[in-house]
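P.,

For your records, the input lines for the assembly:
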Amino acid sequence: MTSTIERADAHPEAPVPVRKSGGFTAAAANYIEDRTSISGVVKEFGRKIFPDHWSFMLGEVALYSFIVIILTGSFLTFFFQASMVETVYDGSFVPLKGVEMSSAMESTLHISFDLRGGLLIRQIHHWAALLFIAAIGLHMLRVFFTGAFRKPRELNWVIGFLLFVLAMAEGFTGYSLPDDLLSGNGLRIIDGLIKGLPFVGTWISFLLFGGEFPGTDIVGRFYTLHILLLPALVVAFIALHLVFVVVHKHTQFAGAGRTEKNVIGYPILPVYAAKAGGFFFLVFGVIALMAAFFTINPIWNYGPYDPSPVSAGTQPDWYIGFADGALRLIPPGWEFVWLDHTWSFNIIVPVVALLALLGAVAVYPFVEGWVTGDKREHHILDRPRNAPTRTAIGAAGVTFYAALWAAASSDIMATHFQLSIEGVIHVVQAWAVLGPFLAYFITKRVCIGLMKKDHEILLHGYESGRIVRLPGGEYIEVHEPVDEYERWKLLDYEVYQPIMLRPNAEGKITAGMRLRARMSNWFFEDRIAPPTREQLEAGHGHETHGEIEKGPGLV
Amino acid sequence: MARKSRKANRRHPLATVVLIAIGLVVTGGGYALLSSTTTATADTNASSQETIDEGKKLFAANCATCHGMSLEGTDDGPSLIGVGAAAVNFQVGTGRMPMAMQGPQAMQKPPQFTDEQTAAMAAYVASISPGPAIPDEKYLQADGDATNGGELFRINCAMCHNVAGAGGALTEGKFAPELKGVLPTHIFEAMLTGPQNMPVFNDDNLTPEDKRDIITYLKYIENNPSPGGFELGSLGPVAEGLFVWIFGLGAVIALMVWLTAKSN
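Structure tokens returned:
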């Protein structure tokens, strides 16, 4: 199979005359074509090119998990009762027989124990949800580290970010629906979080729960969000996201023949569509296998929600873990009374920190665009090493997130590694504060080291490991030159210079300009330019080494 | 089917019944064996002087360094006056005593004494000063009300031991252990004597019938594994999250790499 090049300036070809013979398929196709004129769309869309790299499929995994979620979720709505009316359980799970619980819990138990296939569908739904958000997360990391969010795709990054937040909201509302002990504990934490906000907290909590926690409204309200509002938003944003992908065309890694003006890969029809269609079933299969063999959210163990008991090891699903972890990391005593109000900084600080983290993710493309001052379109992806500062920022962010995440499982780490929980928390606190800096510096150094290595390879070729003794008795290692394809990959990247601080039209230097110059300097002071043509030609045989080029200090 | 010869049938219709019967006899027999040993311990509650003397010797040799020659306690171990036979049976029967090393909490080891020796020491400690006795067999059959037991467990025990009895962390390196595989006697005695950081649930708190119900519940969830499949340690969302990242996403990524691999 050869790959195809899609040109930005390609014109759709003239429609092929429709043949009037060819049996049922052709007849059906004609019938539909005559009434919808859809062939133009199919053809245009079918000729879209999708480059081949495994990491480009992460978004698809998210999409397919979402389809699985919609399918199984619809099934669950047929049987789930979103009501907190008290009933007495009389199903087949013995240890809950005769227990008073809400209809929500009762119907979930009914789905799990007395409905044919119900438990499997429930487990598929939940595993698919976990996979959905994990795939989104990994997809975002891929897009971040390859710089795929740069112009013209900044808005699509924001849409993707909104999808991530919506997915978390979907997950959390779903987790709360069965009204079991675990979900009730989770809601209680959210309630505490809300109530900890100064002035407005109590009001918002009462508004949300329709009175004092837990009330009898919350399941019904979350249900509306979970099956109506949030999915509608998710579908709308997914559609928009995909439209943008088609409009912008897909990005690609640098390689022979690949330019900012073309996309090299397979056309969607037939190869890519076949692969993608098959891939949907593979993803579905993986989820179904997990659901068939591994219990998820065994609500029958948790029992119905009752505000008094709390189980050891109560945790949210993984995607809310970072919020739970942030709460756990705050040292005790950050609460005081001032102006007749209790100021719960143990809650305000983590809430603000989390919002700041999410906000930083959302606006990053704009910040980077502003700092680089780069207004051009980018369709060729960066190798992470070639954008050391961005990669280092990303690594710092991941490290911070991972620390919050680890904190959410501090008790499990304590019991399983026989540590004291206080010790675990202290270590994670240090990790959350120092880890990001460490990750930043290490990553940046590693990136620059790798760039140096690439530079060497371009100039002198690979170390072949073959040692040759020269007639004079000298030993040298033979270097193999890089081939053309490899050279494209190594050479095709850009180097930015820090912005020079120049007075604007009015002859002034504003504070914003200063900040920008300083940030630009921070971004680009350490860089390694790809070797020039002259260097490359001269390089073979000479002993010039790639050096870190230090930008002139600014400001 | 019916026309086929008898021999061709892979299983006689009665085979299932016979299998079940054999299964019942084997488990029942095993159970009888097991409970007969515990009955033996229970009997030593009102034990002969001979057993007490035997217990005294064992105690002096293995326990007195820490608990004192006459149970008065030392710097290395608390006084055992009034702890009763139940505490000794629990501590020695679960392998916590004799304690091996100082730590946040006396760790479980394989029990070092036979049931007879344990019973003898229990009898000896009980003979010095009375305390909670080894529980009566009739509370240990796991035949009570699992529903009541489940509710009591969630209210009284789950905050330390986790709803599914999977265990949980306490402060300063102490922890509430997993409850799978603990003998009914030991569950009862743990509630009765409150080992170390566990509170005492005396008979006014939880009646012996309540304790029986809790045992019933714990045994029910132990003997009826999750209908949803493997339980991932009953650890809840953390285990589920790790699983989906490592195995779920891992499998999917392997598939992606495979799908996009260059075919040559």
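Two observations worth noting. The first strand of chain A starts at residue 4 and ends at 7. The longest helix of chain A spans residues 421-460.

Regards
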